[in-house]
Amino acid sequence: MEITAADGYRNTTCLWGDKGSFGRATIVDPHPADRADSLTRELRAALVHPAVGADAQSS
User: What's the CA gap between 13 and 37, in Å, rounded?
Assistant: First the structure.
């Protein structure tokens, strides 16, 4: 979703949500906005990891 303020300032927001996570990335620099979708996918891949099982947590 791209938003342009009254003064012409532009930012792009991408969202994701699934069973175990929800996230939002807002890109305020207009230059990478054309690849906001790929930047958001990279961010999600870096942040979202499978949960560790209870057995592994107690070790």
Answer: 9
The answer to whether the CB of 43 falls within 8 A of the CB of 23 is: yes
Strands in 22-27's sheet, in edge-to-edge order, are 2-4, 10-17, 22-27
Query: H or E stretch including 44?
Result: helix 36-47
CA–CA distances in Å: residue 33 to residues 3, 17, 51, 59: 11, 20, 31, 44
Q: 11-31 pLDDT, tens per residue?
A: 788 888 888 888 888 877 766
d(CA 38, CA 59): 37
pTM above 0.90, yes or no: no
Q: How many CB atoms lie within 10 A of CB 40?
A: 20
